[in-house]
Amino acid sequence: MPTLRVLIVEDNAADAELILRQLARAGYEVESTRVDERATFLEALARQPDIILSDYSMPQFSGLEALRLLRESGLQIPLILISGTVGEEVAVEAMRVGATDYLLKDRIARLPSAVERALREKAWRAERQRVEQTLQSKLRELQRWQAVTLDREDRVRALKREVNELLEAAGKPPRYPSAEGGSVPQTP
């Protein structure tokens, strides 16, 4: 299994260690960074971890602030909020503003499955974005070819019309049908 780069937003070293143990038990090889304030969070975020696991409430920082900063960065990194005491209403609000999941610390055993699901969703979104970009590129290419083809068809019609006009001026029958869809007269 490849190394999982985890940004842990947690002021309590023991809680951070518990998170790491849960991930190790699930078979993850983890490379982690722990932060507990805005400035260090932004520095660690710039290194684009695979996932962010954040305590909901800390003395100098909060999980919701981390989530807001993540969204402002434009990075598509899943963030799972972890809390010891917050109720269901706060969990719903956190999910509404973009948290990938919300766990209670007394149910931390659920963490590996939440991380796995978050990483699958991240991969799915990345693949979807890649496919959409490819589709847009192909659509632009098709539009360019369509414009070129229509220009060529217009030019061919104009040339046929000019040939017919020259033939008519020379007293000869037209060689190409008219634009109205007439047939080419047969020459004896």
Account of the 3D structure:
- By secondary structure, the protein is an alpha/beta fold.
- It has a domain of 127 residues: Rossmann fold, CATH 3.40.50.
- It has 5 helices and 5 strands; from the N terminus they run βαβαβαβαβα.
- The radius of gyration is 32 Å and the shape is rod-shaped.
Features:
rod-shaped, 188 residues, Rossmann fold, 5-stranded parallel sheet, 5 helices, alpha/beta
Number of strands: 5
Q: What is the percentage of strand-forming residues?
A: 5-15%
What structural class results from the helix and strand content?
Answer: alpha/beta
Order of helices and strands: EHEHEHEHEH
CATH architecture of the domain at 3-129: 3-Layer(aba) Sandwich
Q: Percent range for helical residues? A: 40-55%
Please outline the major beta sheet: 5 strands, parallel
The number of helical segments is 5
The rounded distance between the terminal residues' Cα atoms is 81 Å
Give the arrangement of secondary structure elements.
Blueprint: E1 3-9, H1 13-25, E2 29-35, H2 38-45, E3 51-55, H3 63-73, E4 79-83, H4 88-96, E5 101-104, H5 111-169
Helix pairs in contact: 2-3
Quick structural summary:
This protein is 53% helix and 15% strand. The chain has 188 residues and is α/β, with parallel strands linked by helices.
